[in-house]
């Protein structure tokens, strides 16, 4: 089974030098323009296979060097510019990895590359009509495609037997950063739409279907721009890439054996069917807690009761779509009399709510879980995590690629987020700098202009290309260290160049 989960980027890295087929002098490399990488296709491959990948962009120097955040994918350059080969270890874990191209005087932005444990095939045009649908012979399967022009529609056909389950999922916006808000439809053997989904994992659709009869069914993918514009027609473009995963399995269930980030002290409980569906029968918990339940019927709400402390902030996180649940969850915090104090539905493009709320007074409070559309069923499961927000902090930067000109100073803007009333000093610096690159430590102090943002100043006397980290240490938190991330958690890179 192949399921992705967003997570922190590992800092283990590997560098792969493409074999130079022609002699290129150092001076020529230093004079070359910075390379640009806009697209990889196919955007992934199956573990244990060799994949020929087309890199789209601008490459003043070729062959070029390739960096990846994993040593389980081995990259090499082919003779023609833009042609790469990915040799994926059979032991490679399914998931999201990153790739960056660079030469001594410049680096590209990173692009995602997905590894699966499924046999893969690439869509073949034309395939926008039932009669032209690409056939998928067996499950599981992963189809790599692109909605290459405005109005493009892609179709595949699958044979199902009565009672067989089909799970179809599109990976596009969420993992591939593709500019498509995809729509997924299932058509019966007569060509009529019998199932549809728009947004499940963020903007990416997924659906489960139980075949009522034997026959050939059709899966259709099309979409609109993920950034809405004035058009009302189906969109398309060279970078509208996607991966369609087809499986004949049930979506994964929640695993009660792990408490995740709450720690081992969190109490795990399961809400039984029909339990806690009114405020009077709410489950009482002690924070931190982790619960699992199901919105089993249309219009149902589930309730959890806990004691809040005045001035204490709490994080109430619900996980459903992340695990393949059909629940489009809404959570609310109520006082003891049932008055709503706070509420949350989606977080940006993420359909699972994640609410931070501060208790106004000591007392009993209720958490209400419901479905936004007031529907329900056995596949509307959820996991609820409740924890106190402890003193802590995090930091972020706007870009993953930091470019420095040799002999000149470059500024890096860093944002800081203090949580749980944390008021201590934070020391921010660049880590593992090579010789010839300097960046003084900067201190963030609550109450002045460095409390929420500060500026690092980097100066280099030598050319350099390589991964980098911005870290922060807080003495008041026993020297706890935090690593800066970009908003989309891309690995960071320092590019020191000669103009």
Descriptive report:
The chain is an all-beta fold. It folds into four domains: 14-112, Sandwich (Immunoglobulin-like); 120-247, Jelly Rolls, CATH 2.60.120; 260-388, Jelly Rolls (Sandwich); 392-497, Immunoglobulins (Immunoglobulin-like, Sandwich), CATH 2.60.40. It contains two helices and 41 strands. The protein is flat and about 70 Å long.
Question: Architecture of the largest domain in CATH?
Answer: Sandwich
Helix content: under 10%
Low-confidence spans: pLDDT under 50, at least 5 residues?
1-13, 17-25, 250-264
- Summed over residues and divided by their number, the pLDDT gives a mean of 88
The global form is flat
How far apart the termini lie comes to 49 Å
Rg, rounded, reads 25 Å
Strand content: over 45%
Tell me the number of helical segments per DSSP (H or I, 4 or more residues long).
2
Quaternary state of the chains: single chain
* Count of the separate structural domains: 4
Tell me the CATH topology of the largest domain. Answer: Jelly Rolls
Counting helices, strands and paired strands, the structural category is: mainly beta
How many beta-strand segments? 41
Can you give me a brief rundown of this structure?
The chain contains two helices and 41 strands. It is an all-beta fold and 499 residues long.
């Amino acid at each position: 089974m192949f399921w992705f989960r967003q997570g922190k980027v590992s800092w283990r890295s590997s560098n792969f030098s493409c074999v130079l087929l022609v002699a290129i002098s150092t001076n020529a490399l230093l004079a070359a323009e910075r390379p640009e990488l806009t697209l990889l296709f196919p955007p992934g491959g199956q573990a244990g296979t060799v994949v020929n990948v087309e890199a789209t962009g601008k490459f003043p120097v070729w062959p070029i060097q390739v960096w990846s955040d994993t040593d389980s994918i081995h990259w090499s350059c082919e003779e023609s510019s833009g042609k790469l080969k990915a040799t994926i270890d059979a032991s490679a874990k399914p998931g999201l990895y990153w790739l960056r191209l660079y030469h001594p005087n410049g680096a590209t932005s990173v692009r995602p590359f997905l590894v699966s444990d499924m046999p893969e095939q690439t869509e073949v045009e034309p395939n926008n009509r039932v009669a032209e649908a690409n056939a998928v012979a067996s499950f599981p399967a992963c189809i790599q495609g692109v909605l290459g022009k405005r109005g493009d529609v892609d179709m595949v056909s699958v044979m199902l037997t009565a009672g067989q389950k089909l799970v179809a999922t599109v990976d596009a916006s969420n993992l591939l950063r593709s500019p498509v808000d995809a729509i997924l439809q299932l058509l019966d053997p007569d060509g009529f739409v019998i199932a549809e989904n728009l947004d499940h994992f963020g903007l990416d659709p997924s659906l489960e279907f139980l075949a009522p009869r034997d026959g050939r069914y059709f899966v259709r993918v099309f979409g609109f721009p993920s950034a809405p514009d004035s058009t009302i027609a189906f969109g398309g473009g060279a970078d509208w890439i996607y991966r369609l995963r087809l499986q004949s399995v049930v979506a994964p269930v929640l695993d009660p054996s792990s408490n995740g980030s709450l720690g081992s002290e969190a109490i795990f409980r399961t809400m039984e069917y029909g339990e806690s569906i009114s405020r009077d029968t709410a489950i009482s918990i002690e924070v931190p807690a982790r619960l699992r339940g199901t919105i089993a019927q249309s219009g149902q709400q589930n309730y959890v009761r806990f004691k809040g402390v005045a001035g204490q902030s709490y994080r109430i996180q619900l996980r459903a779509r992340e695990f393949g649940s059909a629940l489009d969850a809404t959570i609310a915090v109520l006082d003891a009399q049932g008055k709503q104090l706070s509420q949350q539905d989606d977080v940006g493009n993420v359909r699972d709510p994640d609410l931070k709320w501060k208790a106004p007074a000591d007392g009993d409070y209720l958490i209400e879980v419901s479905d936004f559309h007031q529907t329900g069923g056995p596949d509307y499961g959820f996991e609820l995590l409740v924890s106190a927000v402890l003193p802590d902090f995090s930091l972020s930067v706007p870009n993953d690629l930091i470019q420095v000109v040799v002999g000149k100073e470059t500024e890096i803007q860093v944002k800081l987020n203090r949580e749980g009333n944390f008021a201590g000093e934070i020391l921010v610096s660049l880590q593992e700098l090579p010789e010839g690159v300097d960046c003084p430590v900067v201190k963030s102090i609550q109450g002045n202009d460095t409390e929420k943002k500060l500026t690092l100043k980097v100066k280099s006397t030598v050319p350099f290309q390589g991964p980098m980290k911005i870290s922060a240490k807080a003495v008041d938190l026993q020297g706890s260290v935090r690593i800066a991330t970009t908003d989309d958690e891309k690995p960071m890179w320092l590019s020191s160049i000669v103009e």
